[in-house]
Amino acid sequence: MSLTSCHVIIWRTSSSLLSRVLSLLGNRRLPAGTASPCTSGRMAAALVRGAARELAWLPSLQCIRHRSKAVTRHKKAIHFERQKILALTKYIAPKPTISESCMKSKAKATDSGKENLLEKFLCSQLENVIQESKMLAVFQRNAIGADDFLHLKHRLHKHEIYIKVFPIQVIRKVLGQSQLQGLLPLFMGHTFLAVSPHAKAKEMLQAIRSAPQVQLLGACIEDRLLSKQGIVNYSKLPSKELLQGQLVGTLSTLTTQTANMLTHHSARLCTMLDQHGKEEGKQAEEN
């Protein structure tokens, strides 16, 4: 170890340790006689190692940086010519042709106190539909295509059954004030109405049979709330004209029987009198 290294090691020690090392080095004497620089360096290193053993342990080898600090995070300054080139080639976006006043979004006026005219119009339409319809059915629309839904409309239109679609808030507002409040729980999700001025439940069920994506939830037929099974049972009933004919036949039979019962006694009396008159005539002829 050279003298420079020894001095570096001594310099890295504390002040108290340095004073003690210097005192020990001062007490030790180098051997007499001329010595080469190499020999004096070895002797100095030996003296330092001996003093270090008496004081404390010191590493025999240390890495000492003599150059600049090891800080690599600072970016190197860009050359002046490169700065000029970067400034010249910097992208400048073109200004928009539309003025800034047109691009600013206008604040929407909140007219909470005014009534929604569109909602009012739809409510009036729904009220008219309810008043003019004898059959009002509620359907749920699932994943059905636009073409299939259009074909379903045409099939129902052949039987004078029309599809009506209204917003949920309009339906709740109108039905909540009418006698059809029992249908309100059915209006959830994608629903629509099938209305008709005639009670054609059988034709409606036949038309929706080819569209399984449409589910019947309930209906109001002739002021009666019916479930899906109730609508099926209602469709199995005979037609109104046939029922009216059966009623007329039953009533005519009863009137005929009543007339026969009322004229039965008088007719029998007439028959008995005729028979009695014939018998008296025969007896008179025999006498």
From TrEMBL:
The lineage of its organism: Eukaryota, Metazoa, Chordata, Craniata, Vertebrata. This is Large ribosomal subunit protein uL10m. Belongs to the universal ribosomal protein uL10 family. It comes from the Eukaryota. It comes from Engystomops pustulosus (Tungara frog). One of its GO terms (cellular component) is ribosome. Pfam families: Ribosomal_L10 (PF00466). Keywords: Ribonucleoprotein, Ribosomal protein.
